[in-house]
Amino acid sequence: MNEKKHSRMVTAILLAPAGVFLFFLLVLPLIVILVYSFGERAPEGGYATAFTLNNYANLPSRSKAFLNTLTLAPLATFLTVIFAYPMAYFLALVVTPKWRVTMLVLVMAPFWTSQLLRYYAWIMILGAQGVPAWLAVIGISDVRIINTPWAVLIGAVYGFLPLMVPPIFVSLEKLDQRLLEASADLGANSLRSFFQITLPLSLPGVATGSMLVFILLMGDYILPQFLGGGKVYFIGNALVDLFLQSRNWPFGAAVSVALVIIMFITMFFYMRFVLGKTDNRRVAMV
């Protein structure tokens, strides 16, 4: 019994720093935001103590920001998976171990530069003197990409690709090659083995990468501001407007709470679906 208590005490001591960190930097701010969401805007801006549900009743006034975010964020996440999966597959199963680390570092290389600089570069590439000018040379004119949802999607895939590749790479690298060999011995071709073994068993990596990208996109402000030009309005842009310009902190807090709830529900069902599919596939193979 003493040994058990000692083990619990050691575990508690080891978890204490992380617990304190999470409480003060995650739980406590969420509690403050929740309290603010029931308040009122002070006459000079900011927060005034009250208890009202008007802020939540006014959420439809930001329906465009919610619609754009809930449409483009999942779509950008899906496109990022489409581009990231072949790269991760190539790194994990095709590239020799000698070059894997080097290639993976090259994938992460864009993170070595400022996000602002990368988006400024895309403004030049997608602007009137960039891709549209190149297309005009071959006879395709009147093409406008910058300040459109397409520009936001392109920037999202480029900007968050380095976050999607490593989790998928880890799942594929840990794949038991004996399963593929057994599949080939049973007469399955490479395409069938991929869809029945490789893809299902790599879904945890896809789910992890998707969660990282989706959460960051849902609250992103810089991407739609730069490549959307203020015409593609995300929830992050709405929050900046409410907290810094309109100084309507209670309404901004209500929008934040709604965003957190939407993200939690979406990721809960997504992870449950993806991981459930993986578990069923493992049981079926056993």
Fold and architecture overview:
It is a single chain. The protein has 286 residues and is mainly alpha-helical. It has one domain (62-285): MetI-like (MetI-like fold, Orthogonal Bundle). It has helices at residues 2-37, 54-57, 63-94, 97-108, 115-126, 131-137, 149-173, 177-185, 190-201, 203-218, 222-227, 235-245, 249-285; strands at 40-41, 47-48. Strands 1-2 form a two-stranded antiparallel ribbon. A hairpin with a 5-residue loop joins strand 1 (40-41) and strand 2. Helix 1 crosses helix 13 (249-285), helix 8 runs antiparallel to helix 9 (190-201) and helix 10 (203-218) runs antiparallel to helix 13. The relative contact order is 0.13. The model is unreliable at 282-286 (pLDDT under 50).
Set down the secondary structure blueprint.
Elements lengths: L1 H36 L2 E2 L5 E2 L5 H4 L5 H32 L2 H12 L6 H12 L4 H7 L11 H25 L3 H9 L4 H12 L1 H16 L3 H6 L7 H11 L3 H37 L1
Helix pairs in contact: 1-13, 3-7, 3-10, 3-12, 7-10, 8-9, 9-13, 10-13, 12-13
Q: What about the largest sheet?
A: 2 strands, antiparallel
Unreliably modeled segments: 282-286
Structural class determined from secondary elements: mainly alpha
H/E order of the elements? HEEHHHHHHHHHHHH
Q: What portion of residues belong to β-strands?
A: under 5%
CATH homologous superfamily caption: MetI-like
